[in-house]
Design goal:
By secondary structure, the chain is mainly alpha-helical. The chain is about 75% helix and about 0% strand. The chain has eleven helices and no strands. The longest helix has about 35 residues. The mean pLDDT is about 85.
Length: about 240
């Protein structure tokens, strides 16, 4: 067997181990969060229930739906609890391919990547969800609403996870800059496209109103600018 296929097999085996450890971490997070699932969902539904009339509640249509809902809630919370472990596994998988000189240690990476992910998730919950819930309820104000708990959680979890991943942009730029794929000059040159893409993402993840789109686009643009600074500080030197 040649060296290249052997190296590929080793990398695939390492990836399998990293994924397994990450799944175990999420499983432990799930168990930790299971007893708190009702309280967590009570927080998650506030952006919606704040717009409902007194006495209106979310509904469920099957006997097992509340139980399955709490499992999904505990799983989502488990992802956030296990985020530092998941990011550590990501670092351990990618770091060997980065240049040794000036390589960031795992601790700052985990701290900053976790901070960005958690901040993004909170931004999705505290900023995007109130906007989107208010917009869609206002749009359907002429009808009687019967939103199911499962439908609402699917929507909520998508917004929160998407926002968390979007906020990881500086970390992605760090990796791309370290291996020489992007440079500060390149990022500055493509700034206008980044701004356009930020508003496209804002249009996809938010209702079709300017305020909510700007509320998401502006942080994305600021994260991109931060990424330029990161590329300048940690980028591969030629």
């Amino acid at each position: 067997m040649s060296a290249e296929p052997a190296t590929l097999l080793l990398r695939l085996d390492d990836l399998r181990k990293r994924l397994l450890v990450s799944l175990i971490g999420v499983g432990v997070g799930f168990l930790v969060c299971w007893n708190f699932a009702p309280a967590i969902f009570s927080l998650l539904e506030r952006p919606l229930t704040a717009h409902l009339a007194a006495g209106e509640h979310l509904a469920y249509t099957t006997l097992t739906e509340p139980f399955l809902l709490y499992m999904k809630v505990a799983f989502l919370a488990g992802i956030f609890v296990a985020a530092p472990l998941i990011l550590l596994q990501l670092w351990l998988f990618i770091a060997p391919n980065l240049p040794q000189k000036g390589r960031m240690s795992s601790v700052p990476f985990i701290v900053f990547a976790s901070l960005f992910f958690l901040t993004g998730g909170y931004f999705g919950y505290a900023v995007l969800l109130p906007y989107t819930c208010g917009f869609f309820l206002q749009t359907g104000r002429h009808f009687s609403q019967m939103i199911t708990v499962d439908e609402y959680f699917s929507f909520t979890s998508s917004v929160i996870l998407a926002a968390g991943l979007v906020f990881e942009m500086p970390i992605l730029i760090f990796f791309l800059a370290r291996i020489g794929i992007v440079t500060p000059a390149f990022l500055i040159q493509k700034m206008k496209y980044a701004i356009l893409l930020a508003f496209i993402i804002g249009a996809i993840l938010t209702p079709p109103d300017i305020a909510s789109q700007v509320a998401l686009a502006v942080p994305i643009i600021l994260l991109y600018v931060l990424g330029i600074g990161i590329a300048w500080a940690f980028g591969k030197k030629v």
